[in-house]
Amino acid sequence: MPTARKTDPAAAGPASIPVAEGEEPWTAEELAEVREELTDEVARLERAIAVAEAGLQDLFSDGSEGAGRDPADVGSTNFERDQEMSLAQNAREMLEQAQLALRLFDSGEYGACESCGQPIGKDRLQVFPRATLCMTCKKREERR
């Protein structure tokens, strides 16, 4: 009597990732490449955040803004601190996108627009693997 085999959603194969009309189905090699790119992006962003946070720590502990400090130096330090905070926040947002895309990939839900449910499109995902919206929904979001 044959036994039923359980299938891992992450190993379900190319047929499980939707493609836009007119696109070729995903190959196992293409999927492995996209997953590796997402994993590398998560690691890269985690390192970038650690570096930015260390830089911020240095800027915050770089002395006081008390008497005797040149106002131009204080202004320069404040500018650097604001810029580092902005870069760190941007990296955190990109990390969240990459982690979400990786979770969707591993759960077998990757490639479908989280807004409308239509395929995001193979071409778009190969260029921007973190994408969770199709171009139509992304354009609509950017107009808001």
Q: Your description of this structure?
A:
59% of the residues lie in helices and 0% in strands. It has helices spanning 28-60, 71-107, 122-127, 135-143. It contains four helices and no strands. The protein has 144 residues and is mainly α. The protein has a domain at 25-110.
State the helicity in percent bands. 55-70%
Could you describe the largest sheet, including whether it forms a barrel? none
| Gyration radius, in Å | 22 Å
The SS-based structural class is mainly alpha
* Number of continuous helical runs: 4
Strands, total number: 0
The H/E string reads: HHHH
State mean pLDDT (0 to 100 scale): 82
Assess the beta-strand content as a share of residues.
Answer: under 5%
Straight-line distance between termini: 58 Å
Low-confidence stretches: 1-15
Instruction: Describe the global form.
Output: elongated
List keywords for this structure.
single chain, 144 residues, mainly alpha, 4 helices
In short:
The protein has 144 residues and is mostly helical. Helices cover 59% and strands 0% of the residues.
Secondary structure elements and their pairing?
Layout lengths: L27 H33 L10 H37 L14 H6 L7 H9 L1
